[in-house]
Amino acid sequence: MPVEIIARQSVVDVLEHRLREDILDGTHGPGELLPPERELAAGYGVTRTTLKHALSRLEQAGLLSTRHGIGTRVRDFLRVGGADLLPMLAARDNGWLAEVFEVRGHIGALIARRAAGRRTVRQARRLAELLEAVAQAPDGDAAQLADVEVHRELARATGNRVYLLLTNTLFNAYLPVRAALRAPFEDPAEAAARLAPVVRAVADGLPDEAEAAATRYLRATEKIMLGSLLPPGGARPAAPRA
Amino acid sequence: MPVEIIARQSVVDVLEHRLREDILDGTHGPGELLPPERELAAGYGVTRTTLKHALSRLEQAGLLSTRHGIGTRVRDFLRVGGADLLPMLAARDNGWLAEVFEVRGHIGALIARRAAGRRTVRQARRLAELLEAVAQAPDGDAAQLADVEVHRELARATGNRVYLLLTNTLFNAYLPVRAALRAPFEDPAEAAARLAPVVRAVADGLPDEAEAAATRYLRATEKIMLGSLLPPGGARPAAPRA
DNA sequence: GGTGTGGCAGTGGCTCAGCCACCCGTGACC
DNA sequence: GGTCACGGGTGGCTGAGCCACTGCCACACC
């Protein structure tokens, strides 16, 4: 078993994470003005310069809004935040993760439909190769990553790059927590077999069938994943808080 | 006529913009190693600290990947970038904008379907109010913004917050360039009339009808928008300016 | 009393110089 | 031939300092 790779965390990374938690937890509520940078920096025990780097990132993420001479205000991320917040939200909260899966299911079906209508011959061949890579994967983790590549290629086959970026966004939310969702991929051959009808329908250029197959596939996978995520007692899977 | 408000641009903003252009234009191609920070800062005539702020933002946006002791590498944003890149891409290139509209159409239909199935009574009432606000808008710009609020509420009515964030993302790409796409909203009453069937179907809880109505609405609006975007002579719609 | 205005205190923007931590190639050493 | 120490180059972070912007309030003026 490979040693666990600890991602190196810079001071700014840690700081950004703590600030984000404080914001999402409501310690700094929406609309609220953050303490002055000098004060905040002292509070976290870092230089103002370092703090500013962290604030700058959070500002770009849509969580903060800074104005010269005034201060830094916490924004209501549900109103202005984009899908790039999903990775941090999904990592915090299984409710978000469940919602991501639901949307991934819907959009995955949409993508399969478009891909069936537009994929090139070359892309159809590439899809078959990538599917084979899933089947041949040496372990669950490799199968899981290979599966992602198939979906990426499906998105590419729509001919619409926005679908590719959306797929990236949803996977960015999913990949960091994928270890807890490996159940559907423990048997790579079986995982590939589940995925095969989608690839076949897309390769054959059958939009309706591709959409239906994708819906079946994503629903089945989601079920196994979320089932393995919840304690047998069965907490509610997706209770949108408030 | 109100004076044109010039958005204040900080040095970091300008620098970030220039760097991003240089990356998207291919001056710094994917996989390439950027020059050292000290050198880059000197080249742009700013302090290393300031440059680092700009780099830090681009890194978070997924365009760069920095490693201590090694350097800063340009990433292939089509592979790893998320949907949050859309605002900058759509602002640069009408091709991207057209793709955003296509996806917005597909996802808008999806959202209408889910909203019809799940909306609360309160949300149905709110939708009617927001639709009325479109009709009552004093001018095209106000109607356009009111229209956005209707779509936001539709996304909220799905009960899935991911749809709300996705909607935000797509609108974040659309709003900065909305002035060029005002044609469908010049007559607020007419714009509201086009949107009305969607709101009605959602309020009545009819998923199939809502999806169909949303598809019709978004397709019609898209047509007017993209049509107005092109000169009558008919230049190619999606010319990425090299 | 109402009005305008100048100054001031507080805030973020940006710079500067410097040291630290990390990676890697090189060459001495075993 | 393998190992390891070292140095050059890179990004990470600091601390102090000054500048630019905003809002407010006391003051002078009408």
Which helices and strands appear, and what pairs or packs with what?
The structure is a homodimer of 242-residue chains.
Chain A: H1 11-24, H2 37-44, H3 48-60, E1 64-67, E2 71-74, H4 77-80, H5 86-92, H6 94-118, H7 121-135, H8 140-157, H9 161-174, H10 188-203, H11 207-229
Helix pairs in contact in A: 1-3, 2-3, 5-6, 5-9, 6-8, 6-9, 6-10, 6-11, 7-8, 7-10, 8-9, 8-10, 10-11
The first copy, chain A, binds a DNA duplex (30 and 30 nucleotides) through residues 8, 10-12, 36-38, 46-50, 52-53, 66-72.
Would you write up a description of this structure?
The structure is a homodimer of 242-residue chains. By secondary structure, chain A is mostly helical. In chain A, 65% of the residues lie in helices and 3% in strands. Chain A is built from 11 helices and 2 strands, in the order αααββαααααααα. Chain A has helices spanning 11-24, 37-44, 48-60, 77-80, 86-92, 94-118, 121-135, 140-157, 161-174, 188-203, 207-229; strands at 64-67, 71-74. A two-stranded antiparallel ribbon of chain A has the order 1-2. In chain A, strand 1 (64-67) and strand 2 (71-74) form a beta hairpin. The radius of gyration of chain A is 21 Å and the shape is elongated. In chain A, 43% of the residues are buried. The model of chain A is unreliable at 1-6 and 231-242 (pLDDT under 50). The structure holds a DNA duplex (30 and 30 nucleotides).
